[in-house]
Structures are given as structure tokens and as C-alpha cells.
Specification:
Elements: H1 13-95, H2 97-115
Length: 118
Amino acid sequence: METNAPAAGNGNPNDIRATLVRSVDHATVGAHDTINSVSDAARPAVERMATNAHDVVDPVAVVAAQAAETLGVKGEQLRTAQDRLVGDVRGYLREHPVASLGIALAAGYALSRLLSPR
């Protein structure tokens, strides 16, 4: 590394110290310049990567929002169908209590035969 400071000819500690301080200052300025150059060179690449990431994330977010909306609509339709089915079953139970009891007994017997160990 080359400095513009005169060499400490007589070995005076103050001259040596001053030379060292100038050398460190010169090296520091050089390091800062290098860091700034690298940072300036990297900035466009980082901005391109950020733009590309946004270009990918934005459509995914739109699709996810549409899917969430569709699921909300389908969930509401399922709740409506469930309410209607429960209402129909209650009506059938009230109109045909003996037949409902027979169906329940037959279903219970069939399940117990299917699930019992043999």
C-alpha cells in the first residue's frame, strides 16, 4: 500500500504515529469507496429481484383471495343444505315415529354386526 506521507526519518514517536494515522485514514477511505461501489453495483440486481418477487407474489395473492371467497360461498351453501336436511329429517321423524324407530334399530343392528369382532 502506497502513502503520500513522508517516511518517519528520525524515529520520532509522534512522526510514526502521524504516519500510521494517515495510513489508516487512507485505508479507511479506500474501504468505504469500495463498499459504496459494490453497493451501487448491486442495487439494480436487488431491485430486479424485488420486482420479480412482487410479480410472482401478486398473482398468487389474487388467486388465494379468489379461493378464499369461493370457499366462503361454498361453506355458506353447505350450511344451508345442512339446515334444510336437518329440517327434513325432523319432519320425517315427527310424521313417522314408528318407522323412524325401526330404521334406527335396523341401522344399529347392522353397525354392530359390521363392527363386532368375529
